[in-house]
Specification:
Rossmann fold, alpha/beta, 7-stranded mixed beta sheet, 7 strands, 8 helices, globular
Length: 227
C-alpha cells in the first residue's frame, strides 16, 4: 500500500497557485500535512496572472497561498539543501515517501529534489513538475508536466535522461517556465496545473500493474498569437 503523508507544493506562482486551488477542493487522497514552499513576495504585477488578492501584495507567496487554500499548511520560505535537512529529508535512517510538486521556474530546484529523492526516499515517493514552456522551434507557448519515481533512475523515464535535465543551459531549449503578459501565458499556466493534477491522481490511485501503462509526461504546444 502506497503511503504519502505529506504533499509539498514547491513554487506558489502562476502554476503552483492553481495546483494548490485544485488540490484544496478535490485531492486524489487526504494528506496529513501540506507544505508550501516559496521565497518570493507578491508584487502588483503578479495580480494579472496569479490568483492572489490585492490586499496580499507584500506577503510571502507561500503564506498567501496557505491563507487562500490551505489554512493549516506549513510554509517554507526557501528550497535549499539546508532546509531539506532541517525537515529530515536527508536522513538516511528514515526514508520519506512524500509527494513533491515542482512548480518553479528554475532547473536547479528540480535537480535538488530529484537528487534527494534518489538518495533518501522510498520507492513510493513521487516528484512531479509542472510549468508553462516556450518552444524555440516556432510552436510558441505551451504546458508541460512530468512525474518521476526513484526506481526509474537512469532509465528513459528519468527526466534527467529524457530531457537532458542536467544544467540550466540544457533545459533552456523548449522547457523553461516563462514570464509573459500575453493572455496565452495564463492559459498555459492553467494547462500545466491541470496536467500535473491529472498525473498525480493517476499515480495515487492506480495499482502497480496499471502504473506500467501510464504516461510519465504530458506536453502541449501551440502558436503564440496576440489580441
Amino acid at each position: 500500500m502506497t503511503i504519502h503523508n505529506t504533499l509539498n507544493i514547491v513554487g506558489c506562482g502562476g502554476v503552483g497557485l492553481k495546483i494548490a486551488r485544485e488540490l484544496s477542493t478535490n485531492p486524489p487522497k487526504q494528506f496529513e500535512t501540506v507544505r508550501l514552499w516559496d521565497s518570493d513576495i507578491i508584487e502588483d504585477r503578479n495580480l494579472e496572472r496569479q490568483i492572489f488578492n490585492s490586499y496580499q501584495v507584500g506577503m510571502q507567496k507561500s503564506d498567501a497561498t496557505a491563507e487562500l487554500f490551505f489554512p493549516d499548511a506549513e510554509t517554507v520560505n526557501d528550497l535549499t539543501a539546508q532546509s531539506l535537512s532541517a525537515l529530515n529529508y536527508t536522513d538516511k535512517s528514515n526514508k520519506w515517501s512524500d509527494i513533491f510538486i515542482m512548480a518553479t521556474d528554475n532547473v536547479e530546484s528540480k535537480l535538488l529534489i530529484l537528487d534527494a529523492l534518489d538518495t533518501f526516499a522510498s520507492n513510493d515517493a513521487l516528484v512531479l513538475s509542472a510549468a508553462n514552456a516556450e518552444a524555440t522551434d516556432g510552436l510558441g507557448i505551451g504546458s508541460t508536466a512530468w512525474v518521476y519515481q526513484n526506481k526509474w533512475k537512469k532509465t528513459k523515464k528519468d527526466p534527467r535522461v529524457r530531457l537532458n535535465l542536467s544544467t540550466k543551459d540544457n533545459i533552456a531549449n523548449g522547457r523553461p517556465c516563462i514570464e509573459s503578459s500575453e493572455p496565452q501565458t495564463g492559459i498555459a499556466n492553467s494547462g500545466a496545473a491541470i496536467r500535473c493534477v491529472e498525473l498525480l491522481t493517476q499515480y495515487c490511485l492506480a495499482d502497480e500493474d496499471t502504473k506500467k501503462h501510464l504516461a510519465v509526461q504530458h506536453s502541449l504546444f501551440w502558436k503564440q498569437t496576440t489580441s
